[in-house]
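Open question from group meeting: does this chain pack into something compact, or does most of it stay loose? Before anyone orders reagents, we agreed to write out a predicted structure and look at it together. Recording both the input and the output here so the notebook holds the full record.
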Amino acid sequence: MGGRRKIVNGELRTKILAEALPYIRAFNGKIVVIKYGGSAQVDAALKEGFAEDIVLLKYVGIRPVVVHGGGDQVSAMMEKMGHAAKFVEGLRVTDDETMDVVEMVLGGLINKEIVALINKHGGSAVGLTGKDGNLMQAVKKKPLRTVDTEGREKLLDLGLVGDIEELNIRILDVLLSQDFIPVVAPVGVTSDGVSLNVNGDTVAGSIAAGLRASRLIYLTDVPGLLKNQEDPESLISTLPLSEVDVLRDQGIISGGMIPKIESVTQAIYAGVEKAHFIDGRIPRSLLLELFTDEGVGTEIVQG
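Structure tokens returned:
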């Protein structure tokens, strides 16, 4: 092997390591639930980096749980199979055929790829869906009341889309106690064995609440919560829960951020200390958010 490379910016690296030490100490033994999605789940280099970061968290004494999505990959697979994905008012309609693809892509391809990457980098990951150990009992989502362009009210049935009825986190407790890293696909199951497509953000929040996790972290394709969507400098660094409704009324929290915020609210009220929205497009953003004073995204706190 060659000699050691010259350290560039050695003083800066020393500062970063020293800054990380108290955080590593504080998080030792704590559970951190990470909702993994967006570009970090698609870009090859980011996928490798994410797996390395999860293993590093484990090595410094943190107990990570990964919950992943994969809606874009589901749509791509359906297109490849000659079946167009159907959305109504931005919501995926999940018929029997679509549910088969959801299970194949989320519970099979994506879940096992994440498990393999984590294990490749020295971790011990185990893939799960809501069917495993009855982890996620779900019920079919009730039809949504919507209003059409002419102001007429109608009911929208999303098909095999579910809401979580009950979590049996015992299987996660067992895996964590044996130093495994659970990787959960958001597929639930009814009491009579029917698979349901469940929102991954909701699953992450519910698991964090059930495990009384220390942190709930969402990897997204935005820097965090921005006061002005066109200005990255308008990042909200810390947001108390008491101010969430104001931001919703102002339209700052909208679209896909709404189920994330609802999940965060549930989790924090259940005992999760903090939640974070971070930009998964930034390499090592997970480590930067957890182990540096400034962080890189938005943290949501009680208050």
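Observations to bring back to the group:
The first strand starts at residue 31 and ends at 36.
The longest helix spans residues 96-120.
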